[in-house]
Design a protein that fits this description.
The complex is a heterodimer of chains A (264) and B (289). Chain A is built from eleven helices and ten strands. With 264 residues, chain A is an alpha/beta fold. In chain A, strand 7, helix 7 and strand 8 form a beta-alpha-beta unit. About 3% of the residues of chain A have low confidence. By secondary structure, chain B is mostly helical. Chain B has one domain. Helices cover 74% and strands 3% of the residues of chain B. Chain B has 13 helices and two strands. In chain B, strands 1-2 form a two-stranded antiparallel sheet. In chain B, a hairpin with a 2-residue loop joins strand 1 and strand 2. Chain B is globular. The C terminus of chain B is likely disordered. Classes of the chains: A alpha/beta (264), B mainly alpha (289).
């Protein structure tokens, strides 16, 4: 399997004062689903925003390192060019245009796809998310959280991405909706041969979707491996699933155990 | 009836100008206080093309294309550099641009009152539009052009992909960029369209009444119309123009003609006190001014 995305020794600082990433390195093979796990403030979202070119808009910048996508250096490219290169981001919040209808949200996308290909991708979105097909004319601002997530994923799909970046797929959604979205995402990935890099606080969701995962702490990758390996790792189970060999623990216990065990 | 006709003509003038304020604000959240000057530049572009050809079918389209180009250049060469800066910096830049344009126009075209209609051989005749109401033929053209411009803008924004992208950029520029939309291209396009509509108004007014720096005042008076309607609403600009024009015409007729230049700004102040986001605008939009 060829490597599609390579991030090497990535350093990012906000307002030239706060260091958010301190040498993140990771790679994603074509066709893989890869998850990034970590607590709040670990640098997961900053990593995604650096890849998609948006940290410049957050008053942050890449101070060191490289991001290569299919052999092309991405650092310092404007976001719209990165999207047209084949990387689509599904952001954590503000993910749809609220005053546009569902269909208009899919129409505004400017991507590598045009004409028949764009229509095919829109049809694919409606096929996989029939709920959106039924709500084509509804303003996106009136959709439920789950429907918004589906629309955000659909808009990213119409971008004809080769790599989809998803920031917090399950955040704020009912488990039954997450279940539905995960199933659709899996089949869309098969249909399009998509590569997915997913940031997720819910390790259970991440391990269900991803084949490989990276664990981030304090702006760097501290663990990586296949989902199966990480899921059976006691430190990860304790820290992110709350079901290590010592049984369920309180959040405070988990945080302490995470620090201790990940460092060990 | 004559009063009604006068109100319709004046509201068409304000509407044609105020849609430029609204378009730029709605898409890029910048209040373009140089819009009056840019409108005047459009009229002077017609004066310039009229000096090369006496055929209005050539001079007017060429001036319109030049104004489209100039609108895009104002964004690409100047306002683009304001991206990421505070809204106040962008507004101050437009004020400075306006002052600069006024000076340049005096240098290049002089401050004298000039008539672009003369070299183009255009003569405005009087037309009866309502029983007992007559307006000039150029005023009638202006009303028709305003209706066409608004119909085109509504259709463009609602039905075309680029129009939807403009709306998307106005709602959430960050997400728009994430969806592959080139924001600079969108902003350049909206500045071009805004200058085009303003210039068309400037050209038609100058063909009817001649041209000098007082044209800016009409541009400024269209700003209250935009704000009364709501700065991010095209429909609001239409209704706001009608309200401001009606108040102006009626007060001139029944109170004092000297109120002509005062009334729009009086309405503006009242509106800012009572409902600062305008009739059809959104509170959120005003927060960003």
């Amino acid at each position: 399997m060829s490597t599609l995305l390579t991030v090497k020794n990535l350093h990012v600082s906000y307002q030239r004062a706060i260091t958010a990433l301190t040498g993140v390195s990771l790679s994603v093979d074509a066709g893989q689903i890869v998850a990034i796990l970590g607590a709040n403030g670990a640098g997961k979202t900053t990593t995604l925003r650096a890849i998609s070119g948006f940290i410049g808009l957050d008053n942050a910048r890449v101070t060191q390192g490289s991001i290569r996508f299919d052999g092309t250096e991405l650092a310092r490219r404007p976001p719209y060019q990165i999207t047209r290169q084949g990387i689509a981001l599904v952001p954590e919040r503000d993910k749809v245009f609220p005053n546009l209808s569902v269909h208009e949200n899919l129409e505004v996308v400017s991507s590598r796809s045009a004409g028949a290909e764009r229509a095919r991708l829109q049809d694919l979105v409606y096929t996989h998310f029939p709920r959106l097909a039924a709500l084509k004319k509804r303003e996106a601002g009136l959709l439920s959280g789950g429907e918004r997530q589906m629309l955000a994923l659909g808009s990213a799909i119409v971008c004809a991405p080769r790599l989809m970046l998803i920031d917090e797929l399950s955040l704020g959604l009912a488990p039954v909706i997450v279940e539905e979205i995960v199933e659709h995402l899996k089949s869309i990935r098969t249909d399009l041969g998509l590569t997915i890099l997913l940031v997720e606080q819910s390790a259970a969701v991440a391990f269900r979707l991803a084949e490989h995962a990276f664990v981030m702490e304090h702006g760097e990758v501290v663990l990586s491996g296949s989902s199966a390996e990480l899921e059976s790792n006691d430190a990860v189970r304790n820290a992110y699933l709350g079901t290590g060999s010592e049984g369920r623990r309180s959040y405070r216990d988990l945080a302490m155990a995470r620090d201790k065990e990940l460092k060990a | 009836m004559q009063l009604v006709a006068n109100i319709i003509v004046l509201s068409a003038i304000y509407a044609l100008i105020s849609c430029g304020y609204v378009l730029i604000y709605r898409v890029s959240r910048v209040l373009n206080l140089a819009h009056g000057e840019l409108m005047m530049v459009g009229a002077y572009l017609l004066l310039m093309t009229a000096s090369f050809t006496s055929n209005p079918m050539v001079a007017i389209p060429v001036a319109a294309v030049l104004s489209l180009t100039m609108g895009a250049l104002v964004y690409l060469l100047l306002m683009r550099r304001m991206t990421g800066e505070s809204v106040l910096a962008a507004i101050l830049t437009t004020i400075a641009l306006g002052i600069l344009l006024r000076g340049l126009i005096v240098i290049f075209f002089s401050a004298a009152h000039q008539y672009p209609a003369v070299p183009l051989g255009i003569h405005s005749s009087s037309v009866q539009v309502l029983p007992g109401a007559r307006i000039s033929s150029l005023s009638l053209i202006l009303v028709v052009v305003t209706a066409l411009v608004y119909a085109s803008l509504f259709a463009f924004l609602r039905l075309s992909r680029w129009g939807l992208r403009m709306q998307a950029a106005g709602q959430n520029p960050l997400l728009a960029a994430q969806r592959g939309i080139n924001l600079h291209a969108i902003y350049a396009m909206v500045w071009a369209i805004s200058m085009f509509t303003g210039s068309v108004a400037g050209m038609l007014i100058s063909l009817d009444a001649g041209l000098d720096q007082t044209l800016i005042m009409i541009g400024l008076k269209a700003f209250p119309a935009a704000l009364v309607g709501g700065l991010d609403s095209l429909l609001g600009a239409l209704i706001g123009s009608l309200i401001v024009a009606a108040a102006e015409v009626l007060l001139i007729q029944y109170v004092n003609p000297l109120l002509a230049d005062v009334v729009p700004f009086l309405i503006l102040i009242v509106m800012l006190v009572v409902r600062p986001w305008g009739l059809f605008g959104t509170r959120e939009a005003l927060d960003r001014v």
